[in-house]
Amino acid sequence: MGHWDNRPAAQANLRMYEAPEIWRRYLDEIDDADKSVKVPGCAAPLDRFLLNALNSTNLLVLTGAGSSFCAQNNAETKLAAKSAPGLQDLWDAVKTGVGATNFDTVIKKIPNGTAINDIEKLLTQCKLYVALYGDGAGDGKLVADFITGAEKAILSRVDFVDDGTDLTSHEMLLRKLARRGIRRPRVKVFTTNYDLCFEYAARRQRFVIIDGFSHAAPPVYDRSHFTLDIVRRDGVKDAPDYFESVFQLYKLHGSIDWRRTQTEIIRSRADERKPVLIYPRDSKYQEAFEPPYLDMMSALQTALRQSDTALLVAGFSFADSHIAQPVIAALESNMSLRLVVCDPALLADEDVKDDPVTTKPKGEPKNPFHQKLLRLAKTGDQRVLLLHGRFEDLALALPDMVAETERERHAQRITALRDAEKPDGGAAKK
Fold it and tell me: Does residue 239 sit in the same domain as residue 172?
C-alpha cells in the first residue's frame, strides 16, 4: 500500500522543505515523559508563510487533475463515473467506449503501438497517423474514427460531478480564498481540469464566478467579460458596493460544458455540438495558444508578472510544460512573486514510511520542474515554499482570514430548511 492510499485529508499530512535538504513534518515530536516538545514540527513557519501569501495583493491558484481526486460520489449517483479519472482510467474508458476489438486493431496499425500504454501517447500517434495517411478511406479513416470515439469516451468519463458529489475540499479552498477583502483584486483560479468541481462548489456556497461567459441564455464566451465585476446597488448609496465572495475561473484546457457553434462558444452541458476541450495528446501545447485557450494562458502569464503576487499550486503535477515553464520564468523575472507548491510527488513513499519528524530524501524528484524548484529552495530562496502533500491537505492548512458573512449563514439556513422539507426528511446526500 502506498503512503497516500486511504489516507484522510489532514494538515498533519503536510511536510515542508527546509534548506539545505531536510523535510519537516507538520506535527511536533512530543516527549512522553514531560510532554515537552522534543523536535518542533513545521506548523508555525508554514502558517506564517501561508498567511503572508494570502495577504498578497494578487492571489492566484493553479490546480490540475490532482485536485479532483478528492471529489467522490456516493453509490446512489446517477452518473456512470464515481470519481475523477487518472490516465489509466481514461485508457480503460476509451477501450470500453470504442470496443476492445476495435481498440486492439488500431493499436496494431500504429507503429510500435503495442508498446504504448499511455492514452496521451496513443492519441498523439493516432493524430500523426491520420496526418500522414489522411482520413478519407482505409486505415486512415479507421484511425480517424477511433480518435472521434476516444474523445467521446474521454468527455463522458470526465463528467463525474453532480449535486451529490462530495466537494468539501473545493468548498473549503474557495471559502478561505474567495472571501478576501473586496478592495483587493479578485482571486484568480487557473485549472487544467475539464470537470465542474469548482463550479458546483461555488454554487453550493452562493459564490459568484467570473469565467469569461455572459449572463445571457445561453451564456456566451467573450474574453472582455473577465474584466467585469459584480456590484450591488440599493438605490441609497452613491457609490457601488462590491459583492463579496467573487472569484475568477480560468479553465486552461477547456470544459465539459463548453460548446462551439459556427460563430461563438456557449456554455451548454447537454448541447451536442463540438466540445471545446484540449484532449490529452502532445498537440495540446500548440492548441493551448489558440482561442479561447490563448486568453487563459495570457491571463496566467500576465498575472504571474504582477508585483506582490502569490501563486498556490496544488494538484498540478508540472507535467504540462507549456504551463510549468511560465511559472519558472516568472520566478526568474518577478522578485516579489511568492510560490507555494504542494505535491505528493516531491517525496518518495519510502522517505516518509515511518513518519519521522525530519527526513532526508534518498533521491531527487523525477519531474525536472520539481528539480528546478528544489534547487531554488536549496539556495535559500525565501519566495519558494515546497510542501509534500495533496490538494485537500493544503485546503485544510490554509488560514481562514475572513469570518463567515451573514449572507453565507443565511444560505446555510435556507439549505437546511429545504433539506428538512425533503420527502425522506434527511439532509442532502454528499
Answer: yes
Whose grid coordinates read 511536510?
15
Residues 6+ apart with CB under 8 A from 290: none
The span from the CA of 279 to the CA of 283, in Å, is 9
Which amino acid, 95? K
CA distances from 148 to 10, 117, 257, 279, 371 (A): 41, 19, 18, 11, 37
Indicate whether 128 and 151 sit together in one domain. yes
What pTM did the predictor assign? 0.90
List, for residues 363-391, the tens digit of each pLDDT value.
Answer: 889 999 999 999 999 999 999 999 999 99
For every residue of 292-360, DSSP letters joined together read: THHHHHHHHHHHHTSSSEEEEEES--S--HHHHHHHHHHHHH-TT-EEEEE-GGGS-HHHHTT--SEE-
pLDDT tens string 226-238 = 999 988 877 776 7
Q: Where a domain ends, among 157, 184, 201?
A: 157
Answer yes or no: are the C-beta atoms of 40 and 292 closer than 8 Å: no
Question: What would the pLDDT profile of 147-191 be if each residue is shown by its tens digit?
Answer: 999 999 999 999 999 888 999 999 999 999 988 888 889 999 999
Residue 79 resides in a domain = no
Number of separate domains in the chain: 2
At which of 157, 185, 207 does a domain end?
157
Check whether 418 has a pLDDT greater than 50.
yes
